[in-house]
Amino acid sequence: MVIVMMKNKLIMLTICAATMISVLTVNEPLKVRAASKENIENKIESNKSKISDLESQKNQISKEKSNEKSKLDEIQSKLDSKGEELAKSQQKVDDYENKIDVVQNKISKVESEIGKLQEEIKNVEDEIKAKEKEKLEKENMLGSRLRNIYKTNYTEKMLAVLLSSRDLSDFISKFANFSKIVKIDQGLIKEVESIQEDLKKNEKELNAKRDTLNNDKKQIENQREELKKIQDEYLKERDVLEGQVNELKTLENEKNNIVNGLSDKEKELQNQISDLSSFNENLRKELDQIFANINSNSSSNGVISKENAGQGFIAPVVGTITCDFGPRTHPVTHKQGFHTGLDIGVSFGTPVKAAKGGIVVRAEYNSVYGNMVIIDHGNGVQSLYGHSSSLSVNKGQKVEQGQVIALAGSTGMSTGPHVHFEIRVNGQPVNPKNYI
Q1: Same-domain pairing of 176 and 84
Q2: Short-list 373, 355, 311, CA closest to 34
Q3: What phi and psi, each to the nearest 5 degrees, are found at residue 323?
Q4: At 406, phi and psi to the nearest 5?
Q5: How far, rounded to the nearest angstrom, does the alpha carbon of residue 356 sit from its chain's CA centroid?
Q6: What is the 8-class DSSP label of residue 350?
Q7: What are phi and psi of 32, to 5 degrees?
Q8: CA–CA distance, 317 with 406 (Å, rounded to integer)
Q9: What are the backbone angles phi and psi of residue 377, rounded to the nearest 5°?
Q10: CATH number at residue 427
Q11: How far apart are CA 415 and CA 330, in angstroms?
Q12: Long-range contacts for 338-341 (Cβ within 8 Å, ≥24 apart)?
């Protein structure tokens, strides 16, 4: 927006200046040239001041940009360092995650073995119960058989067996069979008891193995918990680092935005400076043309030679030179620039005299030089008298050397009563000391 407004303003000023020159030159050439010359000079000086201000702003922005860039570099350096720390921390977290996975696999295997053992123990317990039942049944059967024998008169039982036998051999055979049945029953009971003992022994071994596995599982679980605690510490460290990295990234984005904004402002100011410089260049060319026109319309078109330098001019006032011709810091704007004349300190109301005879081409107020007079002396030479309190001549008036043309003052851009005295040759300011 600022650039567009500046460009529009410059275009309007150029159009106005061109229009004034083209229209008024036809009717009042001398008047227009003098007015246009001063307007252009003032505009050039004004633009120089603006360019100086813009350069100062640009330099300040460049410093700010450099400072912000340094801060950004520092943030990026910290970000790189924290990024490396975060990567290492994450690697530790991942390493412990892998260790925990390995331990968890061990726990799973142990739990699987414990499950199998538990199933075996259950099967053995079921077998023990079955054998216990079988043993009980056989004991009951044998007991029932023996009880029946003892309930019956044993002598009578044996006598009945004897009487029912065909012979002694048959009796012995029957008795032997009975004894054999009893022994078989007793053998079965012992066999069941033996199997029971084996099963109980097996159960005991399985329980011991299960207890061992449970202890192993507990140790592995403790190992897993220790690993988990260490991993949790690294997780906390990682989370802290992630927070720091995120904060640094936020700062990085903010600084990038600031640097980019300053770069944009820097470019904007440079564009304004370029526009003003280009505009000033055009104004200088126009000013050169105006002075060329003034010189071409003077009573003589010659150029002052070195032999004539320092002759024919007098000082406009008698006083102290407070500011010499050349580079200086402006007393009002405090900007560095070039002083195009001499400042001669005098009292208010001191008569200002024409340094040489000629035609008054301008006698009016100017925002920079205040009440000012420009006299054309011919031969491409003009003199300027600025900051007067009042003027004593008019445009187009012919004046003689030493004639009072104004009274000294402090109008325009001035800090005290003095006379700003300029001499221009072919449009270029020269040191008045060489002519008076």
Answers
A1: yes
A2: 373
A3: -150, 125
A4: -170, 170
A5: 66
A6: -
A7: -65, -40
A8: 11
A9: -100, 5
A10: 2.70.70.10
A11: 10
A12: 340/422, 340/429, 341/384, 341/386, 341/420, 341/421, 341/422, 341/423, 341/429, 341/432
Residues 6+ apart with CB under 8 A from 81: none
Q: What is the DSSP string of 136-177?
A: HHHHHHHHHHHHHHHHS-HHHHHHHHHHHSSSHHHHHHHHHH
The reply to whether 348 and 276 lie within a common domain is no
- Residue 162 lies in domain: 40-287
326 and 214, same domain (yes or no)? no
Q: How many CB atoms lie within 10 A of CB 249?
A: 14
Q: How far apart are CA 92 and CA 98, in angstroms?
A: 10
Instruction: Please state, in angstroms and rounded to a whole number, the distance separating the CA atoms of residues 260 and 255.
Output: 8
Which residues have C-beta within 8 Å of that of residue 52, sequence separation ≥ 6? Answer: 335, 336, 337
Total domains present in the chain: 2
> Is there a domain that residue 23 lies in?
no
Query: How does pLDDT run along the chain (436 residues), one tens digit per residue?
Result: 444 444 444 444 443 444 333 333 333 443 444 445 556 666 776 776 777 788 888 888 888 888 888 888 988 888 898 788 888 888 888 987 898 888 788 888 888 888 887 787 888 778 778 877 876 776 676 666 666 655 555 555 555 655 566 666 666 665 666 666 667 766 766 776 787 688 778 778 888 878 888 888 788 889 888 888 888 887 888 898 889 889 888 888 987 898 899 889 888 888 887 887 777 677 666 656 655 665 565 543 333 333 334 458 999 999 999 999 988 775 545 567 788 899 999 999 999 999 999 999 999 998 778 899 999 999 899 999 999 999 999 999 999 999 999 999 999 888 899 999 999 998 889 999 999 8
Can you tell me the distance from the alpha carbon of 212 to that of 305, in angstroms, rounded to the nearest whole number? 122
Listed residue (342, 349, 348, 424) closest to 392, CA to CA: 349
Helix (H) or strand (E) holding 67: helix 29-151
For the chain, the helix, strand and coil percentages under 3-state DSSP, each to the nearest 5: 70, 15, 15
